[in-house]
Amino acid sequence: MGCGNSRHNRENESCVCQVVRAIKDIQDTAQEEECQSCTSCFNEPLGSLISPVRENVDTRVFVLKTKDGSPFHAFFNNDDNACVSIYFRVEDVFDNCCATLRVLVPGKREGTNFVPVNLVNCDDKCCINLAKHCQVTAFMASNDCVTVDLNCFCAIQCIADVNLGICN
């Protein structure tokens, strides 16, 4: 288990793959279980990363980190503006630890409005400005997905449990 592992079977899959599979299972059973306290990506039920525990959540938001420790990012299209995000929701895990991830739009709430937060550094259009991560307090589902090999990542960090209206 770990970075650069060339074995592709379930017994030797990476810890990132195991966590993403667990998140998928937790999301799938979100409405079947009662809420309890939780402090890690593996613990159930969905909604317990929020204090106080909140029901009516359908997504565990997470960030994947590459071998050099930088956050993995993907593009999404928000109206006329192409944007970048480091936040994901697992949609499916299949084969030898491949996954389809929905790209989530990072944002913040201003009153009842969702305002996207641009994570790209204004001076350098190709780099993620990690300081802007601290401004992100809300998420919105995009229509964009990316398929990844989970064995290519070295770390995963669960960020929040939110209701994106995916199950509606």
Describe the overall structure.
It contains one helix and eight strands. Strands 4, 5, 6 and 7 form a four-stranded antiparallel β-sheet that branches. The chain has one domain (10-162). The chain has one helix at residues 15-28; strands at 59-65, 74-78, 81-85, 88-94, 98-110, 113-116, 138-149, 155-162. A hairpin with a 2-residue loop joins strand 2 (74-78) and strand 3 (81-85).
What is the molecular shape?
globular
Largest sheet geometry: 4 strands, antiparallel
The arrangement of helices and strands along the chain is HEEEEEEEE
CA distance, first residue to last residue: 36 Å
User: What is the overall pLDDT average?
Assistant: 83
- What proportion of the residues form beta strands (DSSP E)? 35-45%
Regions with pLDDT < 50 over 5+ consecutive residues? 31-38
Task: Indicate the topology.
Elements: H1 15-28, E1 59-65, E2 74-78, E3 81-85, E4 88-94, E5 98-110, E6 113-116, E7 138-149, E8 155-162
Antiparallel strand pairs: 1-8, 2-3, 4-5, 5-6, 5-7
Task: Give the gist of this structure.
This protein is 8% helix and 36% strand.
Output the keywords.
168 residues; 1 helix; 4-stranded antiparallel β-sheet; mainly beta; single chain; globular
